[in-house]
Amino acid sequence: MINYLTAIKGKELKNHENDHDGLDKIFDRHLPTKQGHNYLPIYQRHFENVRFDVKKVLEIGVEAGTSLRMWEEYFPNADIYGLDIEEACKAAEKGRIKVIIGDQCSEADLSKLPDDFDIIIDDGLHTISSQIFCFDYLFKNKLAERGIYVVEDVIGATKIFDYFNNIAKLNNYWPENEGGEIWSSLNDLGPYLEKDSRFNEKEIYYIKNVLGVSIYRHLIFVDKGRNPEDGQAAFRLLNAKKWGQVGKIRGDFIQSTDFTPTSEKFSTKNPLKIFLQKLK
Ligand SMILES: C[S@@+](CC[C@H](N)C(=O)[O-])C[C@H]1O[C@@H](n2cnc3c(N)ncnc32)[C@H](O)[C@@H]1O
């Protein structure tokens, strides 16, 4: 059984290279509060594939600096920034760790942070308004393309979940009154969104720039980036030959059996349906 979410209890988390420990062993050396909430296996799940590519991390909430030291060791190629309102947290500065004193609820303070973080973690004030305010500002202005934004201690079935559930809903955008036949012309959502009065400017930003939302107990991850159907990343555009092979396998199967794809049955372009409509 794959058991990565609870692996910390009985088994070591996966180590990447012989000389690099997993997050559980690194945790043992620095002891941040995070594992009290069983967050580490979830962090490892999201971070392990990018561990050696990450260049810049920001954590809001420094306190004794234990989590910054854990990230410094886990991401060997990254500068680790901490933001905290308390001057005393400056003491955590050492090695690749830099601490910036500022208020996460102040746009002026957030705007002074460096740009292009690969990872941003909000473990600061933990009020709903500060979590939403920071997410809206930092995700757009300070997180790099393909970056990962994390909100810790999102507790209770409150409006913070509605907020991130809505972002997941926006990510599943589909133009109003359009059927499946426009799938391959979705490459640039712009023309559809311009005509779509259901969404405001901020929502359109999230429609275009969120790859996915992962909601765990008390912990939320949002991945930033254009979806595969958007722009030139489209598999169909870049791999026309392979996409042709995909179509051929499907076509051969449909022709050699009595199989009618479900999408055809419901399509407004289904010839049988059009014929029956004309008869009405
Ligand atoms: C839970 S502790 C951080 C723990 C740390 N990340 C760790 O895992 O070891 C929360 C921190 O947020 C800081 N904080 C509270 N309100 C803040 C604000 N408005 N702006 C920035 N930091 C704030 C506190 O001073 C405190 O150090």
Helix-strand blueprint:
Layout: H1 7-10, H2 23-30, H3 40-47, E1 56-60, H4 66-74, E2 79-84, E3 97-101, H5 107-111, E4 117-122, H6 128-141, E5 143-152, H7 159-171, H8 190-195, H9 201-209, E6 210-216, E7 219-224, H10 235-238, H11 240-256, H12 262-266, H13 271-279
Parallel strand pairs: 1-2, 1-4, 2-3, 4-5
Antiparallel strand pairs: 5-7, 6-7
Bound molecules: S-adenosylmethionine.
S-adenosylmethionine (SAM) is lined by residues 32-34, 59-63, 66-67, 83-86, 89, 103-105, 123-125.
Offer a few descriptive terms.
13 helices; binds S-adenosylmethionine; single chain; 7 strands; alpha/beta; globular; 280 residues; Rossmann fold; disordered N terminus; 2 domains; seven-stranded mixed β-sheet
Strand order of the largest sheet: 3-2-1-4-5-7-6
Here the CATH topology of the largest domain equals Rossmann fold
Proper CATH architecture of the largest domain: 3-Layer(aba) Sandwich
Low-confidence stretches: 1-10
Bound molecules: S-adenosylmethionine
Please give the largest β-sheet.
Answer: 7 strands, mixed
Number of helices, where a helix is a run of at least 4 consecutive DSSP H or I residues: 13
Q: What is the first-to-last residue Cα distance?
A: 55 Å
Rg estimate, integer Å: 23 Å
Beta-strand portion reads 15-25%
Mean pLDDT: 85
| H and E string | HHHEHEEHEHEHHHEEHHHH
User: What would you call the quaternary organization?
Assistant: single chain
CATH superfamily of the largest domain: Vaccinia Virus protein VP39
Helical content band: 25-40%
Shape: globular
Count of strand segments: 7
Structural class: alpha/beta
What is the CATH class name of the largest domain?
Alpha Beta
**What count of domains describes the coordinates?**
2
